[in-house]
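Task: encode each sequence below as structure tokens.

Item 1
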Amino acid sequence: MTHMKTAKHRKTSALGTVVALCLGLMLSPSHAAQNTETSQTMAMQTTSDALSTKQQLIPLIAAFMATSDMPKLNVTLNQGLDAGLTVSEAKEILVQLYAYVGFPKSLNALGELLRVVEAREQRGIHDAPGNEPNRAIPTGDELIAVGTANQTKIAGGPVKNAVTDFAPVINQYLQAHLFGDIFERDNLDWQSRELATVGALAATPGVEAQLRSHMRASMRVGLTSAQLRQLAQVLADHGDKQAAERANEALSQALAAATGD
């Protein structure tokens, strides 16, 4: 009986590792402990343990995009623009999330944002366009280097283990495209990117391992556990109690894991 339980535990642990690695945020055993210097470098000053109204709306936008709830996405995009989200930031959120919930949902959400912006213009509301990325995105080997550095900062250490050794191309895509092409775009800060990612993953059943990893990543880029609890409460207050439960559970597990590092 003990042998059967051990085998079952090993199988479950292996599955969880594979799932988390698909997002590029699981560390090899030799790099499991969070690098203090990296954490201090990455941490952005947090002036309050409360999310701003604008920040609260980012995970809601992401959640409704992930569930393809266009009526709620329409309402929340309007609220986000009213709260100071620029058109560029809104577009960037919806573009980035294709990497987590797929191109079809991203394209549909961008179409909804276009309709929202056009309707607001017809009502005489002229939303701030925002900025395009200020720095040039590198290419070739430089892009890989930059993307790898970004991935390492967000993950808390180099990402390398059995799964990335088994399928190296997945980590190459993560480093070159997600953490390179996308995360190098400076028209949306990393805290906002993580708020969006957590919101989308919380609304998506079956990706709890990735959600857990992104809870830890969120804290590495300067969001507090109190702010992430507030994020879960915002999801609950807007009718997605299951997403809120997944977010709270992932945060609790992420905090427990961090304490054990």
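Item 2
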Amino acid sequence: MSIYVGNLSYEVGENDLREVFGEYGTVKNVQVPTDRETGRPRGFAFVEMSSEAEEAAAIEGLDGAEWMGRDLKVNKAKPKEDRGSSFGGGRRGNSGGGGYSKRY
């Protein structure tokens, strides 16, 4: 399991997160997603610690903490949702007709 870290400054990098979370234990992995078009960080990250106890300590110690001018949102990461199965396999709204009703 990993930790979701939200409301990050766009200046935060992997090494910054390793340093801060390292105070709570061994950091196994850090991912800072970037915007596909601009390449800039998206303002959130995922951090994986080596044990559940270390993750719990990091969440307890950092959730709501102010860092680089922002109040962090730190909690257990939720599994990624499969977005392809909603809306009937990718179809949206009604099935055809151009969005208007037929009147005779």
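Check on item 2: The first strand starts at residue 3 and ends at 6. The CA atoms of residues 9 and 68 lie 6 Å apart.
End of task.
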